[in-house]
Amino acid sequence: MPSSSSVEPTAARAGARLRAADSCRRLNGIGPKLAVRLAALGIERIGDVLLHRPSRYEDRTRITPVCELATAGGPALAVVRVDAAEVRHGRRRSLLVSASDGQARLWLRFFHFAPAQQAQMSPGTWLRVFGEPRPGVYGLEMVHPEYQIVADQSAGHDIVAELRAIYPTTSGVTQPRLRDLVGQALTLLDDPDFWPSGLPADVSAELVAAGLPARTGSALERIHRPPPDTDLAALVEGRDPAVARLAFEELLGHQLGLRTRRRRIKTELAPQLGDAGRGLAPLFEQLGFAPTGAQRRVIGEILADMATSAPMLRLIQGDVGSGKTVVAAAAVLTAVENGWQAAFMAPTELLAEQHYASLARWLAPLGINVWLITGRRRRDDTELAEIAAGAPGVAVGTHALFQQALSFGRLGLCVIDEQHRFGVDQRLALRNKVSERGLTAHQLIMTATPIPRTLAMSAYADLDTSIIDELPPGRTPVVTVAVPNTRRDEVVARIGRAVAEGRQVYWVCTLIETSDKLEAQAAEAAAEALSVALDRVRVTLVHGRMKAAEKARAMNAFKSGAIDVLVATTVIEVGVDVPNASLMIIENAERLGLAQLHQLRGRVGRGSVESHCVLLYQPPLSDTARRRLSVLRETGDGFAIARADLELRGPGEVLGTRQTGAATFRIADLVRDGAWVERALALADDLLAYHPREADILIDRWAGAGGAYARV
After folding, report:
1. Is residue 406 part of a domain?
2. What is the pLDDT, as a whole number, of residue 514?
3. Mean pLDDT (the chain, rounded)
4. What is the pLDDT of residue 150?
5. Alpha helices (runs of H) in 591-673, residue ranges in sequence order
6. Inter-axis angle of helices 241-266 and 674-690, nearest 10
7. What is the DSSP letter of 74?
8. How far apart are CA 106 and CA 143, in angstroms?
9. Considering only CA atoms, which of 54, 240, 239, 77 is closest in space to residue 165?
10. How many Cβ atoms are within 10 Å of 530's Cβ, its own excluded?
11. Which residues contact residue 6 at a Cβ distance below 8 angstroms, ignoring those fewer than 6 apart?
12. Residue 139's domain spans which residues?
């Protein structure tokens, strides 16, 4: 606990009125070390304490007879009398206590105990114990139960009925400490200045009519201290009205924060990149094919944005193979024709190299500089000098694009592919590399992972969205089958037939461990086995541990038709275009998510011949894996797959928020609370326009001063 000379006095000593936005250190018992540990849980302000939702609850509302403990289904409360206690010396030294409630026997075992604790367990002592009953050597036992010495059996039954909250925690933060902090914070809810409503009266009335609590404070009280008659399953699963009340407010605060961020960015100035003369006709001539109607429509939306002085903030969604790179090339050409530079950022070196090859093929003949900037590629000081001097062109690369060594002289456009793989700070670091004073770059963000509408509107409300909903002509649907790996020989024979017919094949190896080394070993073993099994079939290998030049040689050989079978890890998930490849084998497919499987499958079906994808799995399948593979077999629609993925994995996994640093939800769930998402979307603009004070309250409450919305 802080000393009395602490610079920042605790609430009890200060006696000052507190605000939810105040540092949590103003609560009693929080010193510098505990504050650091609480920050790891996302608790920095007093309001964060209240929004730290319990993960489960312990039912302490009744005493369970010992004879019923075996069927209690979880931790339970019992009252027993100690009959004997002794120290046992087995594999582990333990204090074993034999106790009974007069009807049945219960054993209590302590592996960590002090002499004083052993002395407490004298015969005849009555205990009220709480723990998880489980079968032991001598009968039903509790290991390290909580216990309290009571006067007699009657006193043991005299309890305060409680559904005790159990919180997510971290090292050095105990459950009693968290409950104490929550208790302090709950006492402040009666002060309307501490936790103001944040909702207009008519909206609150609408929520009450829907069966939700009138006040957020009431909902917080219920989730932290639920009454004894509460349906705990509904509370934990989010079906309780209190959770719905908090979820709606959080969704609304999130939406308000995103829209406020968008308004702030839109007040900045960007270069106006209108038609500079040549237009896009030379690019379309270089392509060798006509863009689809959807591509032309989206290009038109992009160019309209870039022609204004407000920064473009646009998300392009397009299914696998829909031609997003062509759309991005049109934006890049427009920026460069206006005398500005473009940056094209991809999450992996292989994908960056693929984009570089495509853009160089289309734009270099038009006299446009195309530079490749990656971490492994040797730095070309001449190229870096050209970029720093503001020479028009496009720099294609990985996160190396926003490192300090690279300076853009006239950055007017940022294109970010597979955006969910980058953090918020990384994307901002690239956008902020504009050296033209007072200007900010246009942003074009692309994803080949279709996002369901509800999720897109919640996560990307600060972006305009364009959808490429048309595939190039000549594409054939990919026939997908799931096959157990016991039929591996049949799959290998099928590869031989495909090669004999002049087709090419992918064989993708996956491992459950996230290790480049292990994946490389698995791929090497598969490539060797296929080379032995398939005589005169040319097999090559690509994995993440290879040097860039080696990967490029292998990929180019496969593209040119000099290789029949490409064995690879998931590094070929995106960016590889070989129309002659018509068969995809995905080994251990049950280990991958739907989005990744769909991306991999998208490597075939790019020519006019019917293509097939074989999902080779290790039986038996879990229910989730079975559902996942069934979805892949039934549809090739990326948006249908995305909806199923959202239901199976949840929004955090689909958006990649564990890696990206994007705002995540404390209470709300975008699948469970879909109806409230729609209401929050409809209400956000009204609050910003007519209730700005309430809007500010909600943004601050759910995003915080250091939240995702404040980093722009």
Report:
1. yes
2. 45
3. 85
4. 94
5. 594-601, 623-634, 638-649, 651-655, 657-660
6. 50
7. S
8. 11
9. 54
10. 21
11. 31
12. 62-160
Could you tell me where the beta strands, DSSP code E, fall in 418-502?
Answer: 442-447, 464-468, 478-484
Q: Taking the CB of residue 144, how many other CB atoms lie within 10 A of it?
A: 14
For residue 121, the Cα-to-chain-centroid distance in whole angstroms is: 49
Computed on alpha carbons and rounded to an integer, the radius of gyration of the chain in Å comes to 31
Structural contact between residues 548 and 374, judged by C-beta atoms closer than 8 angstroms: yes
Q: Mapping DSSP to helix (H, G, I), strand (E, B) and coil, where does residue 225 land? A: coil
State the pLDDT at residue 432.
Answer: 62
The answer for residues whose C-beta is within 8 angstroms of residue 257's C-beta and 6 or more apart is 663, 699, 702, 703, 707, 708, 709
Question: Which structure tokens are listed for 88?
Answer: 């046992």
Specify if 704 maps to a domain.
no
Taking every pair of Cα atoms in the chain, the longest distance, rounded to a whole number of angstroms, is 97
Could you tell me the two tokens for 435?
């050296």
Tokens of 223: 């989730």
pLDDT of amino acid 573:
54
Looking at the structure, tell me whether residues 291 and 416 fall in a common domain.
Answer: yes
Which residue stretches of 463-568 are H helix?
488-500, 516-533, 548-560
241-300 residue pLDDT tens: 999 999 999 999 988 988 888 888 888 899 999 876 678 988 998 887 889 999 999 999
> What one-character-per-residue DSSP string does 668-682 give?
--TTTTHHHHHHHHH
- Mean pLDDT score, 674-694: 90
Measured distance CA(330)–CA(415) in Å, rounded:
11
CATH number at residue 499: 3.40.50.300
More confident residue, 474 or 422: 474
Residue type, 61: T
Q: Are residues 457 and 486 in the same domain?
A: no
**In the block, which residue shows the tokens 């069927």?**
71
As a dihedral over the C-alpha atoms of residue 413, residue 414, residue 418, residue 424, rounded to 10 degrees, the angle is -140
Taking the C-alpha atoms of residue 132 and residue 73, their distance in angstroms, rounded to an integer, is 9
Q: What's the CA gap between 416 and 420, in Å, rounded?
A: 9
Listed residues 116, 137, 160: the one ending a domain: 160
- Is residue 260 included in any domain, yes or no? no
**Termini Cα distance of the chain:** 36
The residues with which 442 forms a beta bridge, in sequence order, are 413
- Which two tokens mark 601? 């499958």
- In a shared domain, residues 501 and 398: no
Write the CB contacts of 127 (distance below 8 Å, at least 6 apart in sequence): 79, 80, 81, 82, 99, 108, 147, 148, 149, 150, 156
Phi-psi map region of 474: left, alpha, beta (phi>0 left; psi -120 to 50 alpha): left
602 and 561 in a common domain = yes
In terms of domains, do 343 and 432 share one? Answer: yes
Nearest to 369 by CA among 577, 551, 380: 380
pLDDT at 609 over 80: yes
Same domain for 71 and 34: no
Residue at 242 is within a domain: no
Sign of CA dihedral 551, 553, 556, 561: negative
Q: From CA 639, how far away is CA 661, in angstroms rounded? A: 24
Q: Which of 603, 635, 667 is the last residue before a domain boundary? A: 635
Strand partners of residue 393 = 341, 369
Give tens-digit pLDDT for 295-328: 999 999 999 999 999 999 898 988 877 889 999 9
Q: How many helices (H) and strands (E) does the chain have?
A: 27, 22
Q: Per the omega criterion (within 30 degrees of 0), is the bond before 484 cis?
A: no
- Examine the domain organization and report whether 567 and 627 are in the same domain: yes
Looking at the structure of the chain, the number of domains it has is 4
Rounded to whole angstroms, the Cα distance separating 252 from 241 reads 17
H/E stretch holding 415 reads strand 411-417
70 and 51 assigned to the same domain: no
Residue 171 phi, psi (nearest 5): -55, 130
Specify the DSSP class assigned to residue 439: B
User: In 3D, which of 296, 331, 353, 638 has the Cα closest to residue 475?
Assistant: 638
